[in-house]
Amino acid sequence: MRLAADVLSPTLTVSRRFAASPERLFDAWFDPKAVGAWLFATPDGVSRHVEIDARVGGGFAVHEQRGETLATHFGEYLEILRPRRIVFSFATERQGGSTVVMVDIEPDGAGSLLTLTHELDPEWTPRSAGIRAGWMGILEGLARTTGEAGNGHTLVLNRTFEAPRILVWKAWTEAEHMMRWLCPAGFTVLFAEVDLRIGGKWRSGMRSPDGNEYIAGGEYLEIDRPSRLVLTHIWERNDLEPRANTEIIVTLNERDGKTDMVFIQSGLGTRESAASHKWGWTGAFDNLARLATSLKES
Questions:
Q1: pTM exceeds 0.70, yes or no
Q2: What 8-state DSSP symbol labels residue 82?
Q3: What is the rounded distance in angstroms from the CA atom of residue 260 to the CA atom of residue 210?
Q4: Does domain 153-297 have CATH number 3.30.530.20?
Q5: pLDDT at 2 over 50
Q6: Extended strands (E) in the chain
Q7: What stretch(es) of the chain map to CATH 3.30.530.20?
Q8: Which of 108, 138, 263, 288 has its CA 20 to 30 A from that of 227?
Q9: What is the architecture of the domain spanning 11-146?
Q10: Are 233 and 218 in contact (CB under 8 A)?
């Protein structure tokens, strides 16, 4: 397996404290049944097949059904030192280029501190926020697998729009544009309110095809026009979802007149809620794609 990572590769580091012992954390990386439940798992995915050959030179294969797509993840173990360190290559194609992931575990009081370092392919740098959130979500899954309640579920979505990012930014931050996209497929936006400043509030309502009304709102935490927006999200009216105060991060990168968006929503109360939000946001982003194109053409 060819490694794309080298000394010039950008690195991404995430850490998390766990209640579990180093030995329990370490062993969870090599238990096929456990791995299928948390490693590369998504809210609405179904684990299909996990292979693990736990030796240096051995490897893993993790397959998850995501709708009509079979998502694949492969790796080769480069270093295994129980219970302190695991190093492996990582790729989404068996014969494709791969990067390197290092997992270091140390005792921390009655529990453990896990630090994960991922040497990224330089081409992945624009998506580093989403990759970081993905690993944090994976570690939350590991916490639940080892007996903790965890801190909620994380949803990461990537989308490319056929418009410059200033137009996508406007769609996210101007009420007149939010009225045209901020709802799932088949729904209707009722209103949108924006006070775009740190500590300012946003609020929006929508109506479902069967006539039910839902209202959400939150507060702006970070505003870096036109590349990054951080806000809270909580349902004021929604009898289908648990009332969880979640955080949304939107990162916009322009590439050849197009906009690559990384969307992250963290703190979702249940896996079912994360899957429901994925469905809702996917439909909303279809609306946003049409709006961005129309804004570009106008």
A1: yes
A2: T
A3: 33
A4: yes
A5: no
A6: 11-18, 46-52, 59-66, 69-81, 85-90, 99-108, 111-119, 153-161, 188-194, 201-207, 213-224, 228-237, 246-255, 258-268
A7: 11-146, 153-297
A8: 138
A9: 2-Layer Sandwich (3.30)
A10: yes
